[in-house]
Amino acid sequence: MKFRFKAAAACAASVLGVAVLATGGDTEGVEYDPTAKALDEISQRDVGKRDWPQWGGWSGRNNTPEGENIPVEWDVSSGENILWKSPLGSQTYGNPVVANGKIYVGTNNNYGYISRFPKSVDLGCLICFDAETGKFLWQHSSPKLPTGRVHDWPEQGICDAPYVDGDRLWYVTSRGEVACLDTNGFLDGENNGPYTAEINENSNEADVIWMYDMMGELGVSQHNMCSCSVTVAGDLLFVNTSNGVDESHINIPSPDAPSFIAMNKNTGEVIWTDKSPGTNILHGQWSSPTYAVIGGTPQVIFGGGDGWVYSFVPEGDGNGNPKLIWKFDANPKDSKWILGGRGTRNNIIATPVVYDGLLYVAVGQDPEHGEGVGHLWCIDPTKEGDVSPTLAVDADGKPVPHRRLQAIDPEKGEKAIENSNSAVVWHYSEADLDDNGKIDFEEQMHRSCGTVAIKDDILYIADFSGLFHCLNAKTGEQYWTYDMFAAAWGSPLIVDGKVYIGDEDGDVAVFEHSKEQNMLAENNMENSVYSTPIVANNVLYISNKSTLFAIGNKSGE
């Protein structure tokens, strides 16, 4: 029976103050507009109506803001269409977030904004600027963990984006802490948290409301970095802990530590935890959660470090435990995990995206593992239980337990059988677009760190091999691919009838939003672009490795 949790979830939502926002978009006969969905959700937050206050802008995670007259071309050298620019650290992977006149970016400390932390001190930094002028306002500083690169890789800084609502901000530090900050810092002359600070009108330190140490409190052992862009529903804050392997890349030091948690956003109290990936974590866990209401049922959806996607009742079971709705294995059962990226088994780094009642997610690996085979899935999230494409069984047809390195061993007679409960709508791995009887490089989906962006049933995604794919979001039909000739770490932006995507060479390609390939421009940012472009209040924001740019059409044309 579908949605047996519906009544219970609705009841629990009213008790715990969980917002039941209609983000699924399954209204029959009505054209689905993700921008309208995003703006409706944002209007229920204490932020500006055209702000973009979290990674993906809203809990559906589809990067399709409203914008008009957004430039196609700009020049960072001459200043053409550059409204302002502000220096960041030397490595920037965090995506910009805009709310209430401020913009927030995660980076490292190579610029040295804070006097007590000169640029020679390696830190993870969340930096707040004035969104109109680019003026530096304040910084939250995270000293590196003494355990070194196994937990906190040197020079990497903050790799995720915050969630902002009113005068509060939530994010995950590079030290594996969930932090709640006052968005005004100490510039309002008040200390709103329990942490001692010297307050004066020039204070540019962060005002910390509360901190929760996931390593100390939950035994989490993050691998290389803790990176999760949190999301919120009502009073519930959802976090992927980044629990992972040790320096050997073989052992999992904390298999019983949770991978996914729900917290009270106001107090930092943990509501429930889940350790489903357990001993099957492949490497790290750097995906970010998605919240949606689909078919009337609220769901929080996590991408796991074991390559599975998990959906839970947002409130849990009421006793500190998770309540699973469905799970989906995004790897073929015969895929293998081999150290250093030499295998075909992947984990999930991308953020799941909700569009018109369907869920989209790609698999990938740490970019240092290089290129490899990838998969993009469109999933029906209205089912329950194991909704994987296939099931692993032994020679007698009995279920095989979930395994880390390979789901089935054909030499023992094990095999994958079709799952009658499969939630697959479509799967994209390769397509013979030119009908020549062979699969060319440009006709393959490769590993991806990127998240899809979808509008008008047209889907875009970049892979780590540098291909930018355009597909039919409802059928998976490939419309076109473009070879950027450089690795892409970020995700697309769809706005104002255009699509923007950056790459490791520092180029931002701009396409017409269309089933037909039509590149409008390519703009070089003079440094690698690892983050995702966003638009808020008709301004395009892009950060390269070392600089944040605000871009607008100066001519007004």
Q: What is the terminal separation in angstroms?
A: 55 Å
The radius of gyration over CA amounts to 22 Å
Number of domains: 1
Provide a count of the helices: 3
Which range best describes the helical content: under 10%, 10-25%, 25-40%, 40-55%, 55-70% or over 70%? under 10%
Q: Please list the strands of the largest sheet in the order they lie side by side.
A: 14-15-16-17-21
Bulk shape = globular
CATH class type? Mainly Beta
Number of strands: 35
CATH level 4 superfamily: YVTN repeat-like/Quinoprotein amine dehydrogenase
Strand content: 25-35%
CATH fold group:
Methylamine Dehydrogenase, Chain H
Please tell me the overall pLDDT. Answer: 93
Biggest sheet: strands, sense, closure?
Answer: 5 strands, mixed
Estimated structural class: mainly beta
**Architecture, according to CATH?**
7 Propeller
> Any low-confidence stretches, pLDDT <50, length ≥5?
1-16
Summarize this structure briefly.
The protein is mainly beta and 557 residues long.
Characterise the protein shown here.
The protein has 557 residues and is mainly β. It has a single domain, classed as YVTN repeat-like/Quinoprotein amine dehydrogenase (Methylamine Dehydrogenase, Chain H, 7 Propeller), CATH 2.130.10.10. Helix content is 5%, strand content 31%. The protein has three helices and 35 strands. The chain has helices spanning 6-16, 34-43, 214-218, and strands at 82-87, 97-99, 102-108, 123-130, 136-143, 163-165, 168-172, 177-182, 207-213, 231-233, 236-240, 260-264, 270-274, 290-294, 297-303, 308-312, 324-329, 353-355, 358-362, 376-379, 385-386, 390-393, 415-418, 424-428, 453-455, 458-462, 467-472, 478-483, 493-495, 498-502, 507-512, 519-524, 534-536, 539-543, 547-551. The strands form nine sheets. A five-stranded mixed beta sheet has the order 14-15-16-17-21, with helices on one face. Strand 7 (168-172) and strand 8 (177-182) form a beta hairpin. The longest helix is centred in the N-terminal third of the chain and has 11 residues, at 6-16. The chain starts with 5 loop residues before the first helix and ends in a 6-residue tail after the last strand. Residues 1-16 have low confidence and may be disordered.
